[in-house]
Specification:
Blueprint: H1 2-6, E1 9-10, H2 11-18, H3 22-35, E2 38-43, E3 55-59, E4 65-71, E5 75-82, E6 87-94, H4 101-119, E7 126-133, E8 135-138, E9 143-147, H5 158-166, E10 173-177, H6 178-183, H7 186-189, E11 197-203, E12 210-216, E13 219-220, H8 253-256, H9 261-269, H10 276-283, H11 289-297, H12 301-324, E14 329-334, H13 335-339, H14 341-352, E15 355-356, E16 359-360, E17 364-368, H15 380-389
Helix pairs in contact: 2-3, 9-12, 11-12, 12-14
């Protein structure tokens, strides 16, 4: 763990950090070197006294690989990562027939085997494979409870069983909600959060929804029915709107903060022609959601009022999370956090001044940019489980 998470070490440094004797550390390092999971980087810098240069050791992140297959609505995305969790190869291939699960699986198997071969490794070099799906997933029982998009695909553990037959040479195959896979990226950006309790949510710029997850010491909390972390489906009373959601309720958080609602909110908020150019754009249906986000940063009063509506909804959700599980940190990503300084500043201000029972609540809030993550981090839980199961004689 020291080598994996904190970089390169000499035997004496490991001894100090781990409170193990130098002799014990040498024995452990020898075993790890024999297995190949630890490598020597050669001699380091000599001591101040001019003594013998110590040998430096490192975690071998190419010892094994892991793969995530995100099976989306129209295409499958394949992410091969090393043991650090960073993507080393990413491919996206559309299905030829989205209605046929059997056809999609056959294409997926061919694509995975071709990808692994092209990278120059064997299937036996994979420590695990994770199938990511949109919907309600009971990952502990390998079960799809409710598929959001591909409704003709099987539920229960049928998808997991199909993949275990397709890939008998992969020891560990799991199935997981795609939002939880996305959320693991925070541990690459903020390694210090790995041993904390964290709530993560990101609002999609495409209007596809909100991905959310709760972590405790690096592990996703799922709940009895796989519902924990479905932050997008927290309902918020709003007498102005009644927006139906796929979950069966109305006015879910992800519907109210959908980027395409910004223009609607702008129309509702413009009571006078205080910003004539903006008024004309609205009347001519020329105003785009991203225009509103950028104009809020440029000082437009109307656009700031529109973003205030989104900020209010985010604030309500964070307060509800605080009252139900009270995590140590909150990480917010997505279209508003990535593109608007006004959004970040105002949400920070709202949370800083939040009080329960007249007690100031100190909320640790961070922002994250998911734009270029390519599902890096999506295999981290699988890698943790794999390393935790390793045994050495």
């Amino acid at each position: 763990s020291l080598l994996r998470e904190h970089g390169n070490y000499t035997v004496s440094e490991i001894s100090r950090e781990s409170n193990l004797s130098v002799t014990t550390v040498i024995k452990i390092i020898d075993k790890l070197k024999q297995s190949g999971i630890v490598v020597s980087l050669g001699k380091g810098i000599s001591t101040r006294e001019g003594g013998k240069k110590p040998e430096v050791f490192a975690f071998n992140k190419q010892y094994k690989y892991a793969i995530t297959i995100y099976m989306g609505q129209q295409a499958a995305k394949y992410i091969l990562t090393d043991l650090s969790g960073y993507a080393v190869r990413v491919e996206s291939i559309p299905y030829s027939n989205t209605e046929s699960f059997e056809s999609c699986v056959q294409e997926t198997e061919l694509a995975v085997r071709a990808m692994v071969k092209a990278y120059g490794i064997a299937m036996e070099d994979l420590c695990g494979m994770c199938i990511g799906l949109d919907g309600i997933i009971d990952s502990e029982n390998y079960s799809v409870i409710y598929p959001i998009h591909n409704k003709t695909w099987p539920t229960g553990d049928a998808i997991w069983r199909t993949f275990t037959k397709c890939f008998p040479d992969v020891a560990d195959i799991c199935i997981e909600n795609s939002g939880r896979l996305v959320g693991q990226y925070i541990f690459l950006e903020y390694p210090d959060l790995k041993d904390k309790s964290v709530a993560v949510f990101t609002i999609a710029g495409s209007g596809a929804g909100v991905a959310g997850v709760l972590f405790n010491r690096g592990k996703a909390i799922r709940g009895a029915h796989g519902l924990v972390g479905e932050i997008g489906h927290i309902t918020i009373p709003d007498i102005r709107h009644s927006i139906p959601c796929e979950c069966g309720k109305t006015n879910c958080f992800e519907k109210l903060v959908n980027i395409h609602m910004l223009v609607e909110y702008a129309k509702e908020s413009l009571y006078a022609k205080e910003e004539s150019e903006l008024y004309d754009k609205i009347q001519k249906n020329e105003l785009k959601p991203m225009d509103i986000i950028h104009m809020a940063d440029d000082g437009s009063y109307l656009c700031q009022k529109v973003l205030d509506i989104i900020i209010d909804y985010c604030f309500v959700v964070i307060e509800n999370i605080m009252l139900t599980c009270d995590p140590q940190y909150y990480v917010v990503g997505g279209v508003y956090a990535e593109n608007s300084q006004y959004f970040r500043e105002q949400l920070n201000s709202r949370l800083k001044n939040s009080r329960f029972f007249n007690i100031e609540t100190k909320i640790n809030l961070r922002y994250i940019d998911f734009q270029n993550y390519n599902y890096s981090g999506s295999t981290l839980q699988m890698i943790d489980d794999y390393l935790g199961r390793m045994e050495f004689d």
